[in-house]
Model the fold of this input.
Amino acid sequence: MKKILVFILLIILSVTVASTFAIWNIALKGNTPGKNVTLYVYPGTSGKVLSEQLDSANAILDPLWFKVASRAFKLNDKVKAGRYIITPAMTNRGLVRMFNLGLQSPHNLILSGNIRSMEKLASIISGKISSDSAKILQTLKDKTLIDSLGFDKYSFPGMFLLNTYEIYWTSSPKEIVLRLHSEYNKFWNQERQQKARDLNLSPIEVVTLASIVAEESNIKSEHPVIAGVYINRLKRGIPLQADPTIKYALNDPSIKRILYKHLEIDSPYNTYKIKGLPPGPITIPSPSVIDAVLDYSKHNYLYFCAKPSLDGSHNFASTLSAHNRNARAYQSAISKLK
Done:
């Protein structure tokens, strides 16, 4: 009986060793193609659904091997949502571990171009996280959140900076806002805050002015000069008379020429009627334009007008008579195009 019992135990041990060896062999076998595959896993995804998703995306070579490894390492109830990049020659064990621990891959949120509204910002962010634009917009207009960060509905767009940010697809809208608020605080270091104080402006007022400057010219070298014009006007109590603010008030950036009828609009952004800066930025400016305002050119100019060369550059003037001459030259050049 002892011999039989020993024999049975040896058989069981042999089977166990063989099974363990087979499982580990499967677990350590490469099971991904020779290219990166990006996979989005939603909350509540089971191991079975994940296996099907990997198979349909051609992210694994053998679904059966992955299923065996999933059962062996108890993946079924532990799939974490996220954006994952399946890399070449990943093993089944490596895949299971990645989904078990939620080792998702970050990607870039790029804020660039003309972002004139929270709706546009929400649309951009929605392409990079799992939440839809409606939910993101709701967060971007959450008064309680905005107040807690020290802004109001007018100044809040000034918290965002055109830049590239590394984020995770599973980040919530609030987490994104708090992340960008952290970046805003980093940008406004002691040096920049001191420069703003030297201008008798708050950081948000500097961003507001930068948003106007950014809309006035696409020529980087002109930004400090244009900033200087507006700062001279602020110091002398002269209305800014900035055409981009009128376009913003009318919600029509496509307007080519500002007419007298446009200047009658009743809006806090009408800088022809109201002295000083508008209550918030009219677009999200780049950090370089903000720095151009902080390091503005010191001069006596109070006016600027597009050059008759029509190349997007501007003539600057210290007197109204000189400005009128520049304006007539520009209008003459425009008339010749008709």
About this structure: The chain has three domains: 24-101, 107-187, 190-299. The two ends are 112 Å apart (CA to CA). The beta strands are 37-41, 82-86, 107-110, 164-167, 303-306, 314-317. Residues 5-10, 12-28 have pLDDT under 50 and may be disordered.
